[in-house]
Amino acid sequence: xxxxxxxxxxxxxxxxxxxxxxxxxxxxxxxxxxxxxxxxxxxxxxxxxxxxxxxxxxxxxxxxxxxxxxxxxxxxxxxxxxxxxxxxxxxxxxxxxxxxxxxxxxxxxxxxxxxxxxxxxxxxxxxxxxxxxxxxxxxxxxxxxxxxxxxxxxxxxxxxxxxxxxxxxxxxxxxxxxxxxxxxxxxxxxxxxxxxxxxxxxxxxx
Length: 206
Known about the structure:
Blueprint: H1 8-15, H2 27-35, H3 53-68, H4 72-83, H5 89-98, H6 101-107, H7 114-122, E1 126-128, E2 131-132, E3 145-148, H8 156-162, E4 173-176, E5 179-182, H9 197-204
Antiparallel strand pairs: 1-2, 1-3, 3-5, 4-5
Helix pairs in contact: 3-9, 4-5, 5-9, 6-7
């Protein structure tokens, strides 16, 4: 599947928000935080035109797509699935995105970014219920156990993540050492990012 391979800071600056694309605490992440309000491009600092309602809705959709690393076709499929859910469409959409395996690895603080979590998965380093899963979009369900393959526990990047004291774990997940568990389905309150899902519903309802 084709993915954006350009500068990650450019995506974050386009949306004016930290999208979690850079490792926290790193030099490039610090530089990004200083330049978030400057739109990329030659005339980025001069762009102050008030956006239309459509523009606001589009930017929110693009922001969420970039947070979770999902392309348009797949994002639209998630939205269509959410519309048939009994729950509020916006909450159902975010719950589907949260349940992606790459996001779960990130939320368990086993990878510094979703991009690195995807790499762990596609390279065959992740086990779900003792089975190798190499599909980042795999949707987890309550009760599933997630961990690395045994040899990955010696990987320096994995060791670094496991050495973090008091890691921030999403409330719908639990972790002990390198072993994570899906405790329940995610709810809207479990998602910390500043997302206005109603704008996305309005965008697709036009």
